[in-house]
What we know:
The protein has helices spanning 13-27, 33-40, 48-67, 77-91, 97-104, 112-131, 141-154, 160-167, 175-194. By secondary structure, the chain is mainly α. It is rod-shaped. The mean pLDDT is 85.
Amino acid sequence: FIKEGHSNIIYQEVLGKWCGTQRKNYKNDSLSQEKIKLLESIQFQWDLKEFQWHEKFQKLKDFYKEAGYSFTTKSNKLLNNWIKVQRENYKKNLLSQEKVNLLESIHFQWDPIEETWKDSFNQLKDIYQNQKDFNLPHKSSLASWSRTQRNSYKKGKLSNEKINLLESINFIWDPTYLEWLDNFNQLKDFYIGNGHSQPKKI
C-alpha cells in the first residue's frame, strides 16, 4: 500500500491470492474485527469489482469534464469496452439504480444511435421553427439524414414514434413535393416583386 498507493493486488499472484482469501473470509464472517480494522487502515477494498467499476467511472467522469461529452474515442479501447459493458448490463437490467444515476449525471448515452437520431431531429425542428420550411443545402449532413428518414419510411423501417415526431414538424416525405414547394415559393416571391406570376422562359 505504501509503495503503490492502494491495497488492491491484481497482478502479483501470491499476494493477490492472499487478498482474495481475505475477501472470501470477510464475506463468510470468518475474519476477526482486528484483521478487518488492519486491512481497512490501508484502504483495503472488500469488493474489488465495485472498486474497479468506480475507478472506471471516475476516468469517464474526468473525460466528460474535459471533453463535455461522455463517449470516448476509439483510441481509448479499455474505457470504450467498459462503456459497452454498461450499455449491455443496462439493457439486461443488471445495473443498479445507483450506477444508472451516476452515469446519467454525466449525460451517459445508453443508445448512441438513438441519441444521434434525436440530435438530428432537434436540429431539423429548430430549422423548421425558424424558417417554416425544410430548404437544406443538398450536401449538408442534415439533408443526408432527411433522405435516410424518407428511405426508411418507404421501406417500413421507421418506428411510429419517429414518424409522429417528424410529422409534428410537418416533415415532407415526398422529396419531389419538396422541390415543387421550393419552386412555388420562388414563383411567389417573383409574384410579390413583379405583380404577376408569368416569368419569362430562358
